[in-house]
Write a structure and sequence with these properties.
16% strand; alpha+beta; 3-stranded antiparallel β-sheet; 51% helix
Length: 95
């Protein structure tokens, strides 16, 4: 089996699992390998991210430049848990 990476019509990178003998020019015929969908995660995080930026006083580019560690902490704090949970749900077969 081989993994073939290609770009779909919307610009997303996709991966398909093909048999070694399959033609790599037809990756859509293989078994798709995808990370979990993130649209709902992004929607859920909008409010939380906004509130955390306010709590940390990150309002201007100067605030962000002076608070690089805080910015990274806020972003990871908001997204990491939700993304890991999405991977766990995908493994369980929940959409």
């Amino acid at each position: 089996m081989k993994k073939v990476i290609y770009t779909d019509k919307k610009g997303f990178l996709r991966v398909s699992l093909l048999r070694d003998m399959d033609d790599e020019s037809k990756p859509t015929l293989g078994i798709p390998l995808e990370p979990p969908p993130i649209d709902s995660i992004l929607d859920e995080c909008k409010l939380e991210l906004h509130n955390e930026l306010v709590r940390h006083g990150l309002f201007t580019v100067e605030d962000v430049q002076n608070g690089q560690t805080e910015l990274t902490s806020v972003i990871l704090g908001v997204f990491r848990t939700k993304l890991i949970e999405a991977y766990k749900l995908k493994k369980q077969g929940v959409k």
